[in-house]
Amino acid sequence: MKVMSLFLLGVAVFFGIIGVIYWFTSYEDAGFLMLIGAALLGLLPGSYYLWWTYHMKLQPEEDPDAAMEDSAGTVDSFPGSSIWPFILGMGAMFALLTFVFGLWLAPIAGALILSALIGVTVESRRGGAV
Amino acid sequence: MTTTIERPEVITPEELGGPEGHHPDALHGDADHGHHEGPSGILNWLTSTDHKVIGKSYMITSLVTFFIAGIMAVVIRAQLLDPHTSLVSYQTYNELFTMHGSLMLYLFAGPFAFGGLANYIVPLQVGAPDMAFPRLNALSYWLYLGGVITMLSGFLVAGGAASFGWVSYAPLSNATNSPGAGADLWLMALALTGFSAIFTGVNLVATILYLRAPGMTMFRVPIFSWNMLVTAILILIAFPVLFAAVVMLFCDRHFGTHIFSVEGGGSPVLWQHLFWFFGHPEVYILALPYFGMVTDILPVFSRKPVFGYKGMVFATMSIAALSTGVWAHHMFTTGVVLLPFFSLLSYLIAVPTGIKFFNWIGTMWRGQLSFQSPMLFSIGFLLIFLVGGVTGVLLASPPVDFMTHDTYFVVAHFHNVLIGTAVFGGFAGFYFWYPKMFGRMLREGLGKLHFWFLFIGFWVTFMPQYLLGLHGMPRRVASYAPDTGWTTLNVISTLGTYVIGFSFLFFLINLMVSWRKPVPSGPNPWDGHGLEWFTSSPPPHHNYTHLPPIRSERPTWDYNHPEHRTVVHKPKGKKFAAPNKGDKETVGAPS
Amino acid sequence: MATALTWVDATAHRPLLSTSNYMSSPASVIAVNAPSTDPTDPSQHRVSGMRRGWITALIVGAPLVLAGCNAYPSYGADPGATKQGSDTFKLYSGMMTTGIVIGGFVAVLILWTVVRYRRRSDEMPKQFHENLPIEILYTAVPVIIVGFLFFFTVLTENNVDATQPVNATVTSTGRPVVDITVTAFQWGWRFDYTGLNVGVVGETTNGPNNKGPQMVVPAGETIQITLVSNDTVHGFYLRDFNFSRYAQPGVTNIFDLNVLHTGTYDGQCTQFCGLYHSEMLFSIRSVTPSAFESWASAEVTAGHTLQGSPSGAGNIPPPNTRTTPANAGPSVASSATPKQKASA
After folding, report:
1. Subunit contact B350:C142, Cβ cutoff 8 A
2. CATH number for the domain whose boundaries are C178-328
């Protein structure tokens, strides 16, 4: 946790400094905004992790001497296989192709995306059953 | 059916009668492979959320795009064989180099690394049962496949594929200069693959942060996985900017906005800022994973730990950070960017890259080097990337950039960098982990033939291009005048391309032979270091039934060679006491 | 081991830069050292160290010898036909020498490591994994080198980008700076001599003798170029000038050129700009100041004035009307080649 939060805060500090230098040497707004965006990208998760570093007991993966028993148990449950990512991916492709080839593709895209959203929600509610 | 993942058990060398007789797959035979309860065949491919299946799908798809783009490269070079060759029309030529670049950069080099090898290897290396978000992982593959189909379908529509170069500079890419559906399909393909990359990036970050095995502290994560973490952060910085730029360009093309056109008060240079703010990190998104692969391969074939582990990690971080601050070195000749700022940051990238080089040499130093195909490709990477790096330092200087910008010098430079990383590094990784992924070996002889033809073909192709650039040949020209004196060098370069193309026949034959007449690899054919070599080849459904204690960045090596293990951390003697207790650092064989 | 030492000692006094010596020696090195496989044998390290120094001397020395023959070896580039271009060339040459020395050092180090430490036995190598002083050394030294390169870069960059005030009387003939507005368009160039009332416009032609329009400039005087574009991004590039600059809509780039000698220099668009990008050629002919003045008055007489061929997007001929370049020698513009018919 600590390494990670420092890593992400490092991202924030670096881009913050570079962004400020860049602004005061060039006054170019596009690059400045993107640099500050990159700084925020590091700042938000970095400070979140930093807070948890001091409010969480040492995790087994952070403990240099951890044994496997320390993290015994279930990691997570999720569907072993699922058709919905495929349906959603194809739906996204058709949705974007609608912009190129016209609205006649929109019903196909809509149907695919909608069924995928419903499917994946139901799948998760039932604990992973397809 | 739900899959519930239990943490694997620990085993120590004391069990199983010590490391000599150790064969992890003896512990879990074929029965474990049956853990996978999903459908089989094509339905398995469509529905699998297993990172190994998705990783293989990614790799196969990206290799197909690699071969398609490679055939385009051969046509491009054949067109330039002599002045005014009329092999293809100007329009077709422009489509070909656009698609060659787009396929190679967006659809091969990146996805092959972070969707293919990283997807497969990173969870294994950190001891995770799968990626953190398996269904998101599957979705990112399908978005990627959608992107591939969308981009290639450009060739089928009226007006042909996009023909404005992979950088798509405004205003050449606006509706007036590039009408037709090909350009729109190109933009949509970028949107799809962009999201696929972002999802994979999120997945990699979460996996490396949260799914590491106990004892796998951040500074014990193998360098390849470290580099993938940094790459994933870079993806999260860069790809949203690309997506935003793509949306803006599409609005300019169809919805009457004037973001990139002067007529409506917009700025064409803004496209270049946005594109290169994505584009330069993208170059390192394509390079860092391959640095990581080579960093994992060199120690194995030198039988030593990686030299300067922390130096490597910090060098990767510095390269990534600096790479995001140098985007405008692609825009030196626009005359509107701050030259010294971008020049200095570009120069500074040479420092961490140099650290990496010396660490790679230090890894081999006083080792026992053996030259199987992965090692040969890694050394090829070192030499080719070195030349690309040196010419890159030259290009960081604005005056030298003025002199060579948009000439074949730059073409040769970035092929040196990208072929060095994505092709030599990528195939090093592929030859290295192929036994892990398929449980069978590739043939060494064919692998070496592949390497030598590719290596020689590379130099023959690209060294003349440096000279061509210095002699004034611009990039992206479909023909040139006979009196320019560029013919001889172009002929040499084209012949080199044929050698490169020929070399891949050995690769394909190699795959075919290993498929027809498999030579089982066993779990650990190279005497590997990382955790991935501990499990069977291919690994069971959730990767591990047992794990060794993780006390350094190479747990499998420590397990197999207890007398030569690296103990960087001073153990408390909880589970796995170091032989020289009390030593701050025990290196090498205890006396 | 005694033989090995003798051999190295004997050769250490040979000329370091002899090519034949270098070419013939590695085989014998390997042959002599082969019996000793003990990596901890101290005498062998001494041999390695000496040989390392020897190779280092060679790769550092060879470019220096090259450089000794010529202060600025060309490495394939042009020495630069303008004042700015020769500055750039010197920087390029110096950086290339540095790059070859450093790159050569690293390459030889890699190859030497690969040959020297190839597997000779099953003995386990020493499992060292760091050496802090060396790591600090190879972090600090590149920083210093990069600092030097950056210093010279900034010096050169300031020279190349320096511009004179337009109305300054700085030329040898007492004339103001020759102010030329260059407009790049799909696909051709237009050169407007603002102070002289001369306008030259030329489209790309598609014959084998296509050279595009020609810009005539006085040698030895300062020319100030104002570079614009009305459609897409183009690249104004001359190989002999070691220079390129984008012509972009919405951006006006101003830079100076001082052509040193008389002659004709070929230029070409380098930034991909659409279908006929590869034929968007032009050239610059540098003549003596007096010849330049007579050329300018002849152009005015011929009607090639700013008014006669006014500047601006509306007045640039559309790409499909293929006119003869105003100043490009024999006309070759009439017939399209087969490949262009195919692409149309």
Report:
1. yes
2. 2.60.40.420
Q: Which residue of B has its CA nearest to A8?
A: B233
Chain segment C90-122, per-residue pLDDT in tens = 999 999 999 999 999 999 999 999 999 998 888
Taking only the tens place, the pLDDT of each residue in C190-243 is 999 888 888 888 776 655 566 788 899 999 888 999 999 988 999 999 999 999
Q: Let me know: does C220 contact C174? Beta carbons within 8 Å.
A: no
Nearest CA in chain B to C272: B476
Q: Which of B233, B230, B228, B51 is nearest to B139 (CA)?
A: B51
B588 in reach of chain C (CB within 8 A): yes
Tell me the two tokens of residue B166: 């992979």
B267 CB within 8 Å of a chain C CB: yes
Q: Which of B429, B424, B442 is nearest to B297 (CA)?
A: B429
pLDDT at residue number A57: 80
B-C contacts at Cβ under 8 angstroms: 293
Q: What is the pLDDT of residues C48-69, one digit of tens each?
A: 445 555 555 655 566 556 555 5
ipTM of the complex: 0.93
For B147, the closest chain A residue by CA position comes to: A93
C contacts of B467 (beta carbons < 8 Å): 76
Indicate the pLDDT class of residue B9, thresholds 50, 70 and 90.
low
Average pLDDT of the residues of chain B: 87
State whether B399 and C87 contact (CB < 8 Å).
yes
> What's the pLDDT score for residue B543?
87
Q: What is the pLDDT of residues A10-43, one digit of tens each?
A: 999 999 999 999 999 888 888 999 999 999 999 9
* Distance in Å, alpha carbon of C61 to nearest chain B alpha carbon: 19
- Chains with at least 3 CB pairs less than 8 angstroms from chain A: B
- Specify whether the CB–CB gap between B72 and B100 falls below 8 A: yes
- Of B471, B491, B464, the C-alpha closest to C266 is B471
Residue in C closest to B465 by C-alpha: C76
CA distance B258 to B252: 6
What's phi and psi for C192, nearest 5 deg? -110, 115
Region B447-451 average pLDDT: 96
CB contact under 8 Å between A80 and B569, yes or no, is no
Give the confidence band of B20 by pLDDT, cuts at 50, 70, 90: very low
Domain range annotation of chain B: 38-521
Cβ-nearest to C246 among B333, B387, B470: B333
Q: What are phi and psi of C286, to 5 degrees?
A: -100, 125
Cβ-contact C287, C296 below 8 angstroms: no
Instruction: Answer yes or no: is pLDDT of A61 > 60.
Output: yes
With contacts defined as CB-CB under 8 Å, which chain A residues touch B318?
none
B150-182: buried (b, 16+ CB within 10 Å) or exposed (e) per residue?
bbbbbeebeebbbbbbbbbbbbbbbbebbebbb
Instruction: Inspect the structure and tell me whether chains A and C have 3 or more CB pairs less than 8 Å apart.
Output: no
How many helices (H) and strands (E) would you count in chain C?
Answer: 7, 10
Q: From the list B10, B341, B572, which residue is nearest A65 (CB)?
A: B572
Q: For chain C, what are the domain ranges?
A: 2-118+129-161, 178-328
- Minimal CA–CA distance to C62: which of C108, C116, C27? C108
Task: Test C149 with B347 for CB contact under 8 angstroms.
Answer: yes
Count of other CB atoms within 10 angstroms of residue B426: 27
When CB atoms are compared, the residue of B333, B398, B588 closest to C153 is: B398
Superfamily of domain B38-521: Cytochrome c oxidase-like, subunit I domain (1.20.210.10)
> Is residue A55 predicted with pLDDT exceeding 90?
no
Closest CB to B10 among A3, A21, A68: A68
